[in-house]
Amino acid sequence: MALIQASLLANPAIDSHFSSLSFTSIHATTSLVSFPRPPEIRRSNRKMACTAMVQQVLQGAPATYAKEMERLSAKESLLLAFKDSGSFEALVTGKTTDMQRIDVNERITGLERLNPTPRPTTSPFLEGQWNFEWFGSGSPGFLAARFILERFPSNLANLSKMDVLIKDANAKITATMKLLSSIESKFILSTRLSVEGPLRMREEYVEGILEMPKIMEETVPEQLKGAFGQAVSTVQQLPVPIRDAVSRGLKVPLFGSFQRLFMISYLDEGILIIRDTAGVPEVLTRLDAPASPMAETNTEYES
Is the pTM higher than 0.85? Predict the structure, then answer.
């Protein structure tokens, strides 16, 4: 037995084989054992990951801030252009010059490319009360203005303002006119809206109502007070059904007669820009507080 052990120890090949087996066994054993990383290393790795995320955010922040500043500047520039062109009164009376029109249209285009609302037709910002600042020949605003201007001389009647209330897929356009600078009357156009895409909508006219003038006696010119008193007395003598019908205004059914397609090219909490099929823009500014942007509705598009 001693001779065998001596022989094995004396053989270098066998000794090398046993050494290799011993190293392999030890290496395999140590590779199966997992040693936990020290807390310092784990904290360091997390810190590196957070730092990388912050760097990515900071790299995008200047670009986002610059774009938002550009958008706000474009809005202010457009509102100033409206004032420079004579505002609503000059627009409806045809006193806006070609230079003023092209200036306004240029600023409208500049703001449209910065539209912050990708799906304006279903945005909660769309609903609310809006004031017409700019409109073209195919808009309901132009139709209301033409209706008034064609029936009354400019020295007797003028369109003082026009707004629209959008609510629950319906719109009510109200054109307010003044007669003799003291008698106020309204022409109301009701329409129905349907969503046809993220940008496109259809508008169908339902009815028009010409309300009876509302007259404040103290504002009536002295030379007309006699005629005013006679008119009031005549209305009071009418039968109740007729008097009620007159007080509700003259209704003109329009359902199925007129409709149009338009696209919303810009929408935020304060400005709405739409374009008709001819590409003519209408610009409206909000009169009431905007709705929450979190309340976006999931409206199905109609084909």
Answer: no
Look over the chain and give the mean of its residue pLDDT values, rounded to a whole number. 75
Among 125, 138, 115, residue whose Cα is nearest residue 265: 115
pLDDT averaged per 10 residues in sequence order, the chain, 303 residues: 45 45 42 50 56 55 88 96 90 87 96 97 96 78 64 68 94 84 81 97 92 66 60 58 61 85 97 94 92 58 52
* Cα radius of gyration rounded to whole Å, the chain: 38
Q: What DSSP line would sit under 231-292, residue for residue?
A: HHHHHHTS-HHHHHHHHH-EEEE-TTT-EEEEEEEEE-SSEEEEEETT--EEEEEE-SPPPP
Contact between 291 and 127 under an 8 Å Cβ cutoff? The reply is: yes
Tens-place pLDDT, residues 167-204: 999 999 998 887 766 677 888 889 999 999 999 999 99
Kind and range of the H or E run holding 191:
strand 183-195
- Rounded Cα gap, residues 87 and 279, in angstroms: 21
Cα separation, 192 vs 187, whole angstroms:
17
Of 171, 203, 201, 167, nearest to 188 by C-alpha is 171
